[in-house]
Write a structure and sequence with these properties.
heterodimer, A: mainly alpha, B: mainly alpha, Helix Hairpins, 4 helices, 0% strand
């Protein structure tokens, strides 16, 4: 039983850290703000959430597991809100999309 | 040292190394980022990586009280991003209620691009 919990903890920790690394690579490699936001707000949130879940499973305690799940839920709830606010503010402020982007639906809606 | 604690400690060290690498990559984007919202996105991402760091340290040391610190840091990061978004919005050239009256000189090239885009 202890071995299973240790294996699950190790797997969750490594996958969470790898998700954070993928998000960091995406933030560096994508061409403009609006595509970088995809990497930062999806993969980054999942990375930190998986690491929190690893803590909850490693300590075999239901109250700590509930606290980590609440934290994960909170991050999932707030990450899209902040990303959407920032993207909308940047679009209104006139930051351009990159050259390879095909369509700007927010601009079509506003005009 | 039993096999169980060996697995957990090895995974902890590996996760700390990978998280440090991603932290450095994100800091590079914060320094280099051509515009202000790029830097804000990278700072938001940095908060997420630090939350993961705190979780790994909680496993390494056994103090589960660190989870509360991680949740509080997430709340602070969310509020900081919302405040930065309002700041970016307040510098917008359009008349959207919260227009910035003080025209700053370094805003000019961005504004020209915006007007060109709107034609």
């Amino acid at each position: 039983m202890e071995l299973i919990i240790a294996l699950i903890t190790a797997f969750l920790m490594l996958s969470g850290a790898l998700f954070a690394l993928v998000a960091a690579i995406g933030v560096n490699r994508f061409p403009d703000l609006y595509t970088r936001m995809h990497a930062a707000s999806k993969a980054g949130t999942i990375g930190s959430g998986l690491l929190l879940l690893a803590v909850g499973i490693h300590s075999v305690d239901i109250s700590i597991l509930a606290r980590t799940i609440a934290g994960f839920f909170f991050f999932i709830l707030t990450a899209p809100i902040s990303a959407h606010l920032l993207a909308r503010a940047a679009h209104i402020a006139g930051y351009k999309l990159c050259d390879v982007s095909v369509i700007d639906e927010l601009k079509i809606t506003e005009s | 040292m039993s096999a169980v604690s060996l697995i957990v400690s090895w995974a902890t060290v590996a996760a700390l190394v990978i998280l440090s690498l991603s932290f450095l990559l994100t800091v590079y984007r914060v320094i280099k980022g051509p515009t202000l919202p790029d830097r804000i996105v990278a700072l938001d991402m940095l908060v997420g990586i630090v939350i993961g760091f705190i979780a790994v340290i909680a496993i390494k040391t056994g103090f589960t009280l660190y989870i509360d610190i991680a949740i509080a840091l997430g709340l602070v990061g969310f509020l900081a991003t919302v405040a930065f978004a309002r700041f970016v919005l307040s510098r917008a050239p359009s008349n959207n209620g919260v227009t910035a009256k003080a025209a700053r000189p370094h805003d000019k090239p961005q504004r020209k691009k915006a007007s060109k885009r709107k034609k």
